[in-house]
Each structure stands twice: as structure tokens, then as C-alpha cells.
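During the reporting period the student researcher (J.K.) took over the structure-prediction task from the postdoctoral fellow and processed the backlog of single-chain submissions. One of the processed entries is reproduced below for the supervisory committee.
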Amino acid sequence: MIDAVSKRVKSAPIPPVMYAGTVSRLKRALRVIPSNGVRGGLVDTGQGVVVCAVYGTVRRGRTSYFFLPSIGVTRA
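J.K. obtained the following C-alpha cells:
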């Protein structure tokens, strides 16, 4: 997912110094978070309203993390 975001940013007129450090720190942080079952993707939606839903359970070791159903709505 982060690599897809990096590709999009690289194709934009943004100097690498503006995003390289942030992407690197984000990758390190995401390695710590349990990623079982994590899915992500970028979609070219065009203009309009974008809706997403997040829910589920992730288990890491003897600890379970619960994600209660939540919905995000934004205007693109």
C-alpha cells in the first residue's frame, strides 16, 4: 500500500525531499502494527463522495485487536 502511495507521489510535482522521510517513517511504524488480514488499495474515483468501511479482528501473539465497524466519508 505504501509503495503504491509512493508511486503516486513520485508522479506528482512534489520534490522527493518533501515525502521521502515521511514515507520511510511510515513504513517503519507499519511494521510494528499487526497486519494480519490488512488490505488496502488506491482507486481513481474522480470527483464525488468516497465511502469506506473498516471492521474486523487481528490477533498478534496472545493479544486480539478489535476494530469496531466504522465508516469514513470524504469528498474527492
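The committee noted the following: The chain has a mean pLDDT of 76.
J.K. will present the remaining backlog at the next meeting.
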